[in-house]
Amino acid sequence: MGKTDFANAVAAVRSVEPHLLDRNDFEKMISAKTVSEAEAALAAHGYDLESGSAVEAIDDEQQRVWDFLKTYLGGSDTALCILLYKNDFQNLKAALKAIMSDTDPKRLYVYPTLVDSDELYSSVLERKFENLPEHMRSAAKEAYSVITESGDGQLAEMIIDRAALEAMAKDALKYGDEFFIEYTRELTVGANVKTAYRCAAMGKSVSFIKSALAPCEDLDCDDLAEAARKGTQSVLDYLKQTSYRELGEALEQSAVAFERLCDDRITQLIQDARYESFGIKPLAAYYLAKEAEIKNLRILFTCKRLGIQKEIITERTRKLYDDL
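Predicted structure:
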């Protein structure tokens, strides 16, 4: 599809963008005296709480947004599908966990997805990996072998996480869209730094660390792995020498600060994309803006239920569309 083929979709997105929650909307919910009061404020902004709780309404919202975008995409294979790869791979991990523990995987699934969750589960359970999309087959087979033969769930998850990043990066290059290339690059850098730091804390070998890191042009995996071999402080010192110094500073502050910064860097990517009049970028920008909104809502309502002070809730929330 060409840029003008998305003209109707972009127009539709422009019509719903004003309904995105802004900073003032969040401040009102954060300042609410009770969870019920915060839920009422959320319902006033179009979230359907009549059939369930705020948590259920929030969980359903991203699927609703994807369904909305799909009505304008038809059956087209577009770069926008890359945004859902991480959910498919997350559900692959959920399916493996459920198989090993003989439990129902549905409570672990995330949506929206490209791969039907029931078909994913049966493909893994019956070891019919050829029924999965090509970019998932190898990782699914390898992770299944690892977890069933050695019980090493950590290694199985590492295999799947790396495969997800590789698949996203590969297809971003295939579509040749700089926005999606940069998006997958940011995800990969953040994931690699997080993985390296964790491996350093656990004293993993350099060979293990290298195998856990996804290929990345912007942050040398060999250097990062070598730094991780020496310990967590070495990872922080290494990052200070790169263009990702702020990630190291955030990680040194806390895991929460690091996760927030990684999310904010993704949100920052949509600043230019949101103002384009044609093409797929405004659609991706809207989807990611909704993703940030939903993540903030989950943080907000979790904190409200735990009785966490509003100053801390505000500190934990991510950037929003209107913050850009």
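Summary: The CA atoms of residues 250 and 261 lie 7 Å apart.
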